[in-house]
Write a structure and sequence with these properties.
By secondary structure, the protein is α+β, with helices and mostly antiparallel strands. The protein is 64% helix and 18% strand. The chain has four helices and eleven strands. A five-stranded antiparallel sheet has the order 3-1-11-5-8, with no helix packed on it. It has a four-stranded antiparallel sheet with strand order 4-9-6-7. Strands 2-10 form a two-stranded antiparallel sheet. The radius of gyration is 88 Å and the shape is elongated. The structure holds 2-acetamido-2-deoxy-beta-D-glucopyranose (8 copies). One 2-acetamido-2-deoxy-beta-D-glucopyranose binds next to helix 3.
Length: 392
């Protein structure tokens, strides 16, 4: 279609150009007269030919250019044809989109109408509000004018008083609240006290009951105690009886024990003893717990062999008439443990020296007395020695 359109353009153009050439009045053809060709005519013809040649060349050039353009146009048209298919599709899509857009537009239009209605109503309301604002402004202005007036002062005072009253009310409310909480607390205290009193009463009841029970228990206990005391008395008597019996037995044993302890008194043989001879004690006057044999050895040799371990009280008295400086040595196992001195200064004088000594003796310890120098020892009741075993 584009192709034929191009031809339709070109052909009229060509004819127009030719036509233009024919219609040009400056190039009017010479009238066909029988007159000879004048110079003027010749020049005109020549010019015409030249002009015509130039025109043809021009036309040829133009034709060539047009051909080139035609080719280019054809190419362009072909390209356009191809692209137009794509464009057609694109356009179709666009058309679809456009339809959608149009429907959306319609929808928007509808919404827009609704919005317009709303805006209208808002505008109306706004106007009313504006009117109201104006009224308010007017009132405020009149109020502001009132400020200077006494009425306003009164209003302010009233407001101030109201403020003060409100503060006071707040304070009162606070006090009331604190009072209320205090009352609540007191109430709680009271309830607690009541509960306590209740529980105390209950406790008291229980205690009284318990006391009652205890009283019964006490009389019961008293009774039992009496029985117990009786039983204890009996026990005590039994114990006493037993102890007494034991004591009696023990006492008997002790007496027996005591009688077993060594206790004897033996008196010396009256004679003059020379140095380093033992004084003999053959005269036994008292004897407990000592064998006869031991005492007979003592009497015969003057040596006493201890029969039993123990603490012994040894006492004696000895009389001499030896003048001057004499003494007796008391030996235990050949060691002197005591000296007994005499110092008779004149003739026919006598002296008794005594001794009391405690000695712990082991069994088989031997004891004997020897004068340091020759001396007479009176016998019988004048010179005696006693052993008393105090402990076992
Ligand atoms: C473009 O699309 C229309 C409608 O679908 C069709 O009639 C027409 O022939 C198409 N043109 C081309 C050049 O494809
Ligand atoms: C607003 O006030 C003007 C003048 O006071 C009045 O003419 C108009 O009707 C009022 N508008 C409304 C909506 O009340
Ligand atoms: C409100 O009262 C207080 C004390 O009663 C006073 O100091 C204050 O100036 C008053 N204010 C006005 C606006 O009267
Ligand atoms: C008074 O105190 C109570 C408890 O705090 C509160 O609920 C009430 O709003 C107060 N009233 C006033 C007038 O302050
Ligand atoms: C006596 O007291 C004991 C414990 O103290 C109790 O077990 C017993 O029930 C009481 N008896 C009476 C009769 O209250
Ligand atoms: C204790 O001894 C006394 C007197 O000998 C006797 O009357 C009493 O029954 C004895 N008591 C006991 C519990 O043996
Ligand atoms: C004698 O008494 C002692 C203790 O003093 C004792 O050990 C010993 O058994 C008693 N002897 C007799 C026969 O009772
Ligand atoms: C004491 O002497 C006797 C006889 O010599 C002896 O049998 C005994 O073992 C001696 N006892 C002690 C404790 O020395």
């Amino acid at each position: 279609m584009g192709f034929s359109w191009v031809f339709a353009v070109i052909i009229p153009y060509v004819f127009l150009v030719c036509d233009g050439f024919l219609l040009d009045d400056r190039n009017k053809p010479a009238t066909t007269s029988r007159s000879l060709l004048t110079d003027e005519n010749y020049n005109a013809l020549f010019n015409l030919i030249v002009h015509e040649r130039q025109s043809r060349a021009k036309l040829e050039q133009q034709l060539a250019r047009i051909e080139r353009e035609l080719t280019a146009t054809q190419q362009g048209v072909t390209d356009i044809y191809h692209t137009s298919t794509d464009n057609n599709n694109t356009l179709e899509n666009q058309a679809k989109i456009w339809n959608e857009i149009r429907s959306e537009c319609n929808h928007l239009n509808t919404e827009n109408d609704l919005l317009k209605l709303k805006v209208d109503s808002i505008e109306k309301k706004h106007t009313v509000l504006e009117n109201y604002t104006k009224v308010l402004e007017h009132e405020v202005a009149s109020l502001q004018q009132l400020k200077g007036v006494k009425d306003l002062q009164t209003v302010m005072n009233v407001r101030n008083e109201t403020k003060v009253l409100r503060e006071e009310l707040k304070l009162t409310n606070n006090s009331l609240n604190s009072l209320r909480s205090e009352a609540e607390a007191r109430k709680q205290d009271f309830v607690a006290l009541l509960n306590k009193a209740d529980s105390t009463e209950r406790n008291l009841e229980i205690t009284v009951k318990a006391l009652h029970n205890n009283m019964n228990n006490v009389s019961e206990t008293q009774h039992q105690t009496k029985l117990e005391i009786k039983r204890m008395e009996n026990d005590m008597q039994m114990y006493q009886n037993r102890t007494f019996k034991n004591l009696q037995e023990n006492l008997g044993l002790e007496i027996h024990n005591m009688s077993n302890r060594a206790a004897f008194t033996a008196c010396a043989k009256d004679q003059t003893y020379s140095t380093a001879t033992s004084i003999l004690f053959p005269d036994v006057q008292t004897r407990f717990g000592v064998s006869n044999s031991a005492l007979s050895v003592f009497g015969g040799s003057g040596k006493y062999t201890c029969g039993e371990d123990g603490l012994y009280l040894i006492s004696g008295f000895f009389m001499t008439d030896a003048t001057g400086y004499v003494y007796l040595n008391f030996y235990k196992n050949s060691i002197i443990f005591e000296r007994i001195y005499f110092s008779v200064t004149t003739g026919h004088s006598y002296q008794t020296s005594t001794t009391v000594i405690l000695q712990y003796l082991n069994k088989n310890d031997t004891l004997h007395l020897q004068p340091y120098s020759t001396m007479r020892v009176f016998g019988s009741s004048y010179s005696c020695i006693s052993f008393l075993q105090l402990t076992n």
